[in-house]
Amino acid sequence: MEPNDLLPLPAPVFHILVALAEGERHGYSIMRDAEERTHGALRLSPGTLYGSIRRMLEQGLIEEVERRAPADDERRRYYRLTKFGRRTAEAEASRLAELLGKARAHGLLTQRG
Amino acid sequence: MGSLRNAVERIYSRLLSLFPGEFRAEYGEEMADLARERSRRERPLGLLLVLLLDALKTAPREHLILWSSEVRVAFRGLRRRPGFTMVAAGSLAIGLGASAAIFCVADAILLRPLPIDHPERVVSLRSQSEDSPIGVSFQSVSYPDYADLRLRSRSFSGLVAFQTASVALAPQPDSAARLTLGLLVSDNFFSTLGVEPRLGRGFRPDENAVPGRDAVAVLSDGTWRNAFAGDPEIVGKTVRLNGVTFTVVGVTPPKFTSIDPFVRPAVYVPLMMAPMVSGAGGKRMLEARDARSLAVKGRLLPGVSPRQAEAESKAIAVDLARSYPATNHDQSLAVRTELAARIESSPGDARMVTLLVGLVLLVMLIACANVASLLLSRAGTRSAELALRTAIGASPMRVVRQLLTESLLLALLGAVMGAAVAGAGVRLFSHMAPPTDLPIEVTIRLDSRVLACGLVLAAGSVLLFGLIPALRAARSNLVRDLKSGDAGPGADGRIPRLLGRQVLVIVQVALSLTLLVAAASLLGSFRRYLSSDPGFRRAGVYMLSLDPTVLQYPADRVADFYHQLSGRVATLPGVESATLSYGVPFGDRFEFLNLVPQGETLPAGKKALSVLGATVDEHYFSTLLVPIVSGRDFLNQDTERSPRVVIVNQEFERRHWPGGSALGKRIRLADEGAGVEAEVVGVARTHRYLWVGETPREFVYLPFAQSKRQRMTLLVATTGDPASIGPALRSVVRTVDPNVPMLDASTMEDFFAIRAVNLSNTLVEAVSAMGLAGFALALVGLFGLMSSTVTRRLREIGVRMAIGATRHSVSNMVVREGLWLVMAGVLLGVAGGAGVLVLLTGLVEGTRLDDPLLFLLLPLCLVATATLALVQPARRAAAVDPVVTLRQS
C-alpha cells in the first residue's frame, strides 16, 4: 500500500499521527496533545480514539511499543509511528499545505498575526 | 460533585459493553481511564452526553468492521473447499427445498390466510346440530337465523353471509353466456372484510332490503379484465346474469381473489337477488329458517375473543330455539377460527397435510444432521488451524463467531439453492389441480412468506448444528491439536459420537430405500394399470357437460330437454350410441348414496351405508361398454311412475349377498325419504371408478328417469375421431335450447389422461422425489462420516502402512467399512420396503411382493452408488504418507 492510497486522512487519524510525530505516547497523552494543539477545540472521545488506533495498527501506520516507562501505569500502552505512518503523515501534511496554498491564492486565507 | 463524577464513570463502564468483546478486552480499561481523566476536568453532564454519543457512533462501526472481516475469511474458507461447500449446501438445499415445496402445498390447501384486511380477526359461524347420527355435525346458517344473529350479536363489528351460485354470465345482452360461479353476498360483505373496490363501490344496505329489487353487481378483477377488457368506464354499464340485467357498481381489487381458498367467483351480487339468480331455491333460501345454506363470517370487535363470541352466539341460538322450535329445537351455533373451520370441513386434507409436514420435517432433520456431521468432520481437520488462531491471540469467542459466520454463509447458499429445488417441487405439485372450466383453482405458489420461512429455518438449523463443532473447537486442547494437526482417535468420548453417526447413516439408507421401494412398486402398478383396461371404453368417446340449473326451469322442462337432446344426438351421423350420466368415471362428480341392502345388519348407530354411485340414463352401459353380467340394463319402461329399480356392480353383489344373486333383492334408498325401496334388476361388471390403482369398490347406478338431476354429462360413442363430433353436438344443444350452458367438453381419452395419468404420475413423482432426496442425503452422510473417519485415523493408517500394508489394502479397508454401513441400511430398508408393500396391497390393486426388481436390482443400484461416495475418502486414505503422518505425532 502507498501512503497516497489512504488520503485524505480522517481528522482524528491525522491528529494522532501528528501527536506521535514527536515520539511515543499513550492514548491519554495523544488526546491531551490534540486538545492543546487545537486550543481545546478537538477532544478525542474514547471510542473515536481507540477505534482509530485499532484501525491504524491494522493499516500499519503505528505500532505498539513493547518497552514502557517504568514509572508509568502498567496498563498504559505506548504507540509510535512506523515508517509508513510517517510517510503517510508527510503526504497528508503536504496535501493540506497545497490546499492551503490554493486557498490563499484565491484570497480565502489572510496571514494571521 | 464527586459522586456525580463517579456516576459518570460507572455509566461509562456500562456503555463500554456496547463495543465488541474483543475490542473491549483490548482497549476497555484505557477507554475507562480516558473517561475518568476527562471527568476530572469537564462538567459531568456535558461529558456524559459526549461519551454517550461517541459510544453510539463508534461501537456499531467496530462491530461492522469485525463482522465484515469475518465474512471475508468465511467466504475464503468456503471457496477453498468447493467439495465440502457444495455437498453441505446441496444437502441443505434438498432439505429446505422439500420443506418449502410441501409447505406451499399445505399453504394452498389449508394454511393461507384470506386475502382480506386483518384476516386473524375474522371467524366463521356455523349451525351445529346435536342429534345427528355421527355425533355433532356442522353446517351452514339459514338467512333468517343470520338476520337475527346480525341484529342481536354484540361481539362483531360486522357479520357477513354469502353463498356460491352458478351463473351464466354475458357481458353484452346479445353475447354468448359463459357458465361460471358467482357469490351472493350480504350488503356489508366488502366493508366488513375490508375490501376496497378498485373501481366504483361495494353494496349499500338499502340494496339488500327488498328481495329481487336491486339488480346491482360487483365484478371480480379477473372478469373485469377478461370479459370487459378492463374497461375503465365499466361502472354504470350492465351485465347479464342468468338472463337478468344487472348494473355494475364496482370492481374488486386484484389482491382480493376470493373468500374461499379454492373458488374464485366471477361476480358478486346482493343476497336479496337470490330469487332472480337461483329461482325458487333462492326464494326459499331467503325465507325458510331450515334452509341452511349460507356461509357466515364475522369480524370480532377489538378485545373480544372467539370464545366470548361463541358464548354469546350460543345464547342467541338458545333464544331462537325457544322462539322457533319447529326448525331450531336442536340447533346451536359454533364459532371457529378460519384454520379450525377449514380443518373441520375437510379433515382428510388436514390429515394429509400433517403427514406431509411430518415427513418433510424428517427430511429436514436428516439434512441438518448431515450438515452437522460434515461440519464436525471438518472441525476435526481444522482444529490445527483453529488452535493456531487461538495461539496468535484470537479469543475463543472470536473462533466460535468465525465458525458460526461460516455456517451462516453456508445456510445462505443452501437457501438460495433450496429455492430452486422448491420451485421444481411447486411445479410438480401444481399439476394436481382439477381440470374444469369453472373458476376453481388450487394456487400452489412460492411466495415471500415461504422463502422468508425457509431462510429462517436454514439459518436456525445451521446455527444450531454449527454451534456444536464451534463450541468443541473453542474448548479444544491447544497443545495437542497444534502438535498432531488432528484430534486423536478415541480421545474424550468421540467413539460414541461416531457410533451415533454410523447409526444415522444406516437409518438414512434404510429409510430412503424404503421410500424408493414404495415408489418403484407404485410406479410398476400404475404402469400396469395405465396399459391395462380400466374396465370401460375410452376410445372414441366424447363428453360434454350441461347445466340448466341457472335457467330455473321446472323439473319436467329439464327432463324434456334431456329427452329431446339424447334422441337427436343418437341420430347424428357417426354416433354409435349416446347417453347421459351425472358423473363420469375418474371425474369428481360422483354421488354418495345412503342405502340399506335387504338383509343387511347395520353397525350400531348407523342408519344407512354410504356407497359410491351415479345417476345414468339408458344406453350408459352400452356406450361405455360396461357389460351387464346378469339381469338387464335400464330401459325406457323404467319411468317416474314405474317401480323403482337399481343396478349394482359385482363387488356390491359379492359383499352383500355372498354366494347368491343380487337380482330381485331390494335396497332401501334412504336419501329419497322414508320407505322408498328399489329392486335390483341388473348386475354390472366392476371397473375402476376413481383412480387406476383402486381395489374393487361397490357401486350403485340409479336410472335418470327416476332420479332427476339438473347438471348432466352427455357421453357420446363415435365411429370416427371423437373430437370432430364436438361442433355438431354443440349445435344440437343450441337447437334444442339455445340458453343451456355447456362446459367441460373433452374426449374421454384426454380426460382420462389428465385425471388418471397425471394424478398418478404426480403421486409417484412425489414419492420417488422424496426417496431420491433421502438417498442423496444418505450419500452425503456416508461421505461425511467416512471422510472424518479417515481423518481421525490418519495415524493408524500411517502405522499400518509403515508395517507393510499396501495402498490398495488401506483403501479397501475404508471401502469395506463404508459398505458395511450401507449393507446394514439396505437390509433394514428391504425389510421396511416389504412392510410398506404389505400395507399397500390393501390399497393398491396388484401390488406384488415377489418383484425381483424391487428387492434385488434397486438395493444393488443403491450399493453401487454408495460405493462412489466412498471413492474420495478411500483415495485419501491410500495417499497417506506414513513418514509425514508418523512424524507429526
- Identify low-pLDDT runs of chain B: 131-135, 485-496
- Estimate the helix proportion of chain A, in percent: 40-55%
* Quaternary structure state of the chains depicted: heterodimer
Spatially, the strands of the biggest sheet of chain B line up as: 4-5-10-7-9-8
Rounded radius of gyration of chain B (Å): 36 Å
Main sheet of chain A, how many strands, which sense, barrel?
A: 3 strands, antiparallel
User: Measured on Cα atoms, how large is the radius of gyration of chain A?
Assistant: 15 Å
Our count of helices of chain B gives 25
Helix-strand topology string of chain A = HEHHEEH
How would you sum up the major sheet of chain B?
6 strands, mixed, barrel
% residues in beta strands of chain A: 5-15%
- Distance between the amino and carboxyl termini of chain A: 40 Å
Structural class of chain A: mainly alpha
The percentage helix of chain B is 40-55%
Total strands of chain A = 3
Number of helices of chain A: 4
Number of strands of chain B: 23
Give the termini distance of chain B in whole angstroms.
64 Å
Question: Which class do the helix and strand fractions of chain B yield?
Answer: alpha+beta
Strand content of chain B: 15-25%
Output the keywords.
A: 113 residues; mainly alpha; three-stranded antiparallel sheet; globular; B: 889 residues; alpha+beta; six-stranded mixed β-barrel
Secondary structure layout plus pairing:
The complex is a heterodimer of chains A (113) and B (889).
Chain A: H1 11-21, E1 25-26, H2 27-37, H3 46-59, E2 62-65, E3 78-81, H4 83-105
Antiparallel strand pairs in A: 1-3, 2-3
Helix pairs in contact in A: 1-2, 1-4
Chain B: H1 2-15, H2 21-41, H3 44-80, H4 82-111, E1 122-129, E2 137-139, E3 141-142, H5 143-152, E4 156-170, E5 178-185, H6 189-193, E6 199-200, E7 216-219, H7 221-227, E8 238-241, E9 244-251, E10 267-270, H8 274-287, E11 292-300, H9 306-323, H10 325-328, E12 331-337, H11 338-345, H12 347-391, H13 396-429, H14 448-474, H15 478-484, H16 494-531, E13 541-546, H17 555-570, E14 575-581, E15 591-597, E16 609-616, H18 620-623, E17 628-631, E18 645-649, H19 650-656, E19 666-669, E20 677-684, E21 700-703, E22 712-718, H20 726-736, E23 742-747, H21 748-792, H22 794-802, H23 807-841, H24 852-878, H25 882-888
Parallel strand pairs in B: 5-10, 7-9, 16-21, 18-20
Antiparallel strand pairs in B: 1-2, 1-11, 1-12, 3-11, 4-5, 4-8, 4-11, 6-9, 7-10, 8-9, 13-22, 13-23, 14-22, 15-16, 15-19, 17-20, 18-21, 19-20
Helix pairs in contact in B: 1-2, 1-3, 2-3, 3-13, 4-12, 4-13, 4-14, 4-21, 5-9, 11-12, 12-14, 12-15, 12-21, 13-14, 16-21, 16-23, 16-24, 17-20, 21-24, 22-25, 23-24
